[in-house]
Amino acid sequence: MTSEPSSLSARTEDHALTQVPLSERRSGWGLMTNTAGIASTLVQIAIAAGVTAIVGVGYGILAGVIVCVFGGVLGWLVGHVAYVSGTSSTVTARAYGLGSRGSALASAIFAFMILGFLALENALLYYGTLFMLGWAPTTLNAIVIYGVLTVIWVILTIYGMKIVQATSTILLIAFTALVIVMTVVAMVRSGVSVSDVLAAGPAVPGGDASANFGLVISMLAGSAGALALVDADFARYARSTRDVGILAVGGAIMIDIVVVIVGAFIVHASNPLVSEFLSTHPAEAASQIGESVADKMNWMIANNTGAYFIVLFGIFGFVLMYVAQAKAQVLNAYSGSLSLSNLVNGLTGRTPSRLSMVIVGNVIGLIMVAADILGFIASFLGILGVTTTSLAAVIIADFFIVRRRQPAVLADSEPVNWAGLISVVVAAVAGSVLSETGVTPLGFLVSLVIVLALYPPLRRILPGRSGGPSGPAAAAGSTPGATRITERTL
After folding, report:
1. Is the pLDDT of residue 294 over 50?
2. Which residue, 380, 393, 378, is CA-closest to 97?
3. Which residues of 361-400 are buried (b: 16+ CB within 10 A; e: fewer)?
4. How large is the average pLDDT for residues 83-93?
5. Beta-bridge mates of residue 26
6. Model's pTM, two decimal places?
7. Of these four, 96, 162, 345, 413, which has the most CB atoms within 10 Å of its CB?
């Protein structure tokens, strides 16, 4: 009887700040349902639809393939380090790149990113629910809807990896089936053929595909960098580096190729039907949610895939919207709790319960919603590429270049790895400035190159304790069964 509470506690904590033992490692195919699940959301479909609207469907798919290769390799490399370490992305950054307290920067970046997505998806569900049910955006309705959503995410997240993966697997299968049905129905009802969609050019007035190609690469790369860090969170459960590759490449294919194609087909095939709805039901669309937010809802109908679902298929589209979002929200809340656990531990030395961090993460998400994150989505997505790529790059540079694949001892991590901290900050600032000033849209690529070029020599100048124990003996003192892990290489 006494073992059950202990087992429940272990599942709840889920190795948030410790290494995953070999006995709990999993198949890459099973882990891929998490990375593919978090990549297939309404936000990502909307981004994909925007990409094809800017440069056309053909160029949009080409951009997706390019970013898929970039994101898949980046996720595999970062994931391999987390697999060897057996820890989440932010805890891995303690030993590889930032130090125990310096990893608070990684946690802050990751938490801002993942909880921002949590808030954004919640907001889309809220407005979609108002639109479907014809409710006004009152304080009471907000409390009820956001309250119910938050309770669901907390319950599904607190029981650890097993429940998270089971939930993601079921909902990913349901989402895939439903979205295929919806795409076929939309094409049949609108009379748009496959060749019509594939031949569609830029929908933005005056759009120039070749001139805007770098822009859409940057748009897709923002999510690719974020997914690379999520890959690391799940790669700590991988059995081999091959399994890491499966989950990383599978997630990249989903977010950059499958979702781009799905977004293009849904939006381009549905545009005639949605345009007809807007022209014949403008008053109904506004009255369903209250005139004070009619402009926002008209924007949602015209630009958000979830609204397309509801306009086209009513309750069926409404269910699909929740299926798409629920699997991602569980994963967002899960990864967010890991980053917050490391943030608190790195700054204070205390070990918070993961349950408390799940709750805190959801509260932060609600605060972001209250700050109207929908109004800042462009800015939010704009900084993802440079910050997440910089963080991933310093982990990669430390493990593969500085340490030459020799594992670190987590307990020997220095408080602050100044070389890594400086490299990440310089790269993120430089990439952001170059992007915002219009010098180049590929700020994420600039950030990657800066970290890879700056960190190794800077680490020699500011060595810290990087020359500590290494090799199989150190690995055995770092990760249960790690001697076997380090024998496998890329």
Report:
1. no
2. 393
3. bbebbbebbeeebbeebeebbbbbbbbbbbbbbbbbbbbb
4. 93
5. 238
6. 0.83
7. 96
What does the mean pLDDT of the chain come to?
82
pLDDT of residue 305: 66
Nearest alpha-carbon partner for 49 in 161, 203, 174: 203
Question: Who wins on pLDDT, 219 or 450?
Answer: 450
- In this predicted structure, what is the pLDDT of residue 11? 54
Q: Structure tokens of 214?
A: 């770098």
**Residue 26 backbone phi and psi in degrees, to 5:** -130, 170
CB-CB contact of 247 with 331 (8 Å): no
User: Model confidence at 465, in pLDDT bands (50, 70, 90)?
Assistant: low
What distance lies between CA 200 and its chain's CA centroid?
29
CA 271 to chain centroid, in Å, comes to 28
Question: What was the pLDDT predicted at 175?
Answer: 79
Model pLDDT, residue 329: 87
Judge whether 42 and 266 are in contact, CB under 8 Å: no
Token output for 468? 């500590």
The whole-angstrom separation of Cα 388 and Cα 396 is 12
CA dihedral (466, 472, 476, 481) positive or negative: positive
Contact 325, 42 (CB under 8 A): yes
Residue 273 burial (CB < 10 Å; 0-12/13-18/19+)? Answer: middle
User: Model confidence over 466-479: pLDDT tens digits?
Assistant: 443 333 323 333 44
